[in-house]
Design goal:
mainly alpha; 0% strand
Length: 399
């Protein structure tokens, strides 16, 4: 009886705690700085002794969290305006490609440099590709695809928050003046792009939504969740048709083919983003992020504290990889004669994703690069799962 009650209370906490933390972060600046993902991990950790003492079913929670991730990925991609990428100026696309190349090269080097100190360096390297080309949703998606533990995913994500915080402060302070001495200056084109489209994306990715009728907003998001669930069911159905080495069925078999499921839901999410009604539906990215926050709470509740022994190695790997990517990207930009503002905003799009574009563009005093930067971040969300899993397959040949 106690375990049943504890399990029910656990799922209620998973469902509602992210919303409470989002509201708290909007009111308290320090919480907003730490970020909702980190706060969900921490609160899950603080509640984990009570959950474990009550005998809650953490195994079922882990299975549910895997489904949440599979549904989160298409949700964050539904709003991706990939056709809009064609409107990007050539230097912007080239610079974002340079960031992607730098990420693949440095993550590969990081694997070889840290595999003696970080036991899961292969998976970490692949997840960092997802992170520094896409964003946090891609870390989780690639980690689950590689059947890595929730504890490793939480450890990497948390370490990345600390490492990324230092780079974000640099971006907001002296990165602009520094890069403008090293790279050509940005040449203004006199336009900030489609103001309506830019406003919609800034609103979507910042989480600051304009007031809407509550029932209409709920119905719209419920429809998007139903569409994401359909994507997951199609992917799961495909795995049931695949031959299994172990003769597994149901969730056990789907776990064996998690990478296949993630590739399918990613592809379906991208395909549905080309449907105008799906792409323009408000709230899809925020809803996908909410699923990631629920995953973060479950991960905190079930965290394996023995993983903390490798925290310094993971943090060292992330710091080396992140700043290595920035340095290689800057060198490639100099060779390619890319201007400073374009290099900085595409670095932001890769390492942080769409939500951070507007404040960095504001620090650079260049509103022209907001929409192109967001579009680059959207492109990263779409392609980084493929690149991360591809790198994992390549590095697997080296053990």
């Amino acid at each position: 009886m106690l375990s049943t009650v504890s399990t029910i209370l656990m799922f209620l906490a998973v469902l509602f705690l992210p919303r409470l933390l989002i509201l708290a972060a909007q009111k308290v600046p320090i919480l907003n700085t730490l970020g909702s993902v980190f706060l969900c991990y921490v609160l899950g950790l603080l509640l984990s002794p009570l959950v474990k003492l009550g005998g809650a079913d953490l195994g079922t929670a882990s299975d549910v969290s895997s489904i949440m991730v599979c549904m989160a990925m298409p949700l964050v991609l539904f709003s991706a305006d990939l056709p809009g990428v064609r409107r990007l100026a050539k230097p912007m696309l080239v610079s974002y490609g340079m960031n992607g190349l730098a990420t693949l090269l440095v993550c590969t080097a990081g694997f070889f440099a840290f595999r003696a100190f970080v036991p899961d360096a292969l998976n970490m390297g692949a997840m960092l590709v997802g992170d520094y080309i896409g964003g946090t949703p891609n870390i989780v998606a690639i980690g689950k695809s590689l059947q890595d533990s929730n504890s490793n995913i939480a450890l990497l994500t948390t370490a990345d928050i600390f490492a990324g915080g230092t780079y974000f402060l640099i971006l907001l302070s002296f990165m602009g003046p520094l890069m403008r001495r090293f790279l050509p200056k940005y040449v203004p084109v006199g336009t900030v792009g489609d103001a309506v489209e830019q406003g919609r994306y800034v609103e979507e990715f910042s989480g600051r939504k304009l007031p809407t009728h509550p029932f209409r907003a709920f119905a719209g998001r419920a429809a998007l969740v139903g569409l994401a669930l359909a994507c997951f069911l199609v992917a799961a159905g495909i795995t049931l048709l695949l031959p299994s080495r172990y003769g597994n069925v149901g969730l056990a078999k789907m776990g064996e083919f998690t990478a296949v499921i993630m590739i399918v839901v990613t592809t379906l999410g991208i395909a549905l983003s080309f449907v105008p009604k799906v792409r323009s539906a408000p709230g899809s990215f925020a809803t996908g992020q909410y699923f990631i926050l629920m995953f973060a709470v479950i991960t905190g509740l079930s965290f394996d504290f023995e993983k903390l022994s490798g925290a310094l190695g993971v943090l060292g790997m992330i710091m080396a990889v992140q700043y290595g990517i920035v340095v290689v990207h800057a060198l490639l930009a100099r060779l390619g004669k890319i201007d400073a503002d374009t290099m900085i905003i595409t670095s932001t799009a890769g390492i942080f994703g769409p939500p951070f574009i507007a404040p960095v563009a504001s620090a650079l005093k260049n509103p022209e690069i907001i929409l192109p930067g967001i579009l680059c971040g959207i492109l990263g969300l779409a392609v980084s799962n493929y690149l991360g899993l591809g790198l994992a397959a390549l590095l697997h040949m080296f053990g």
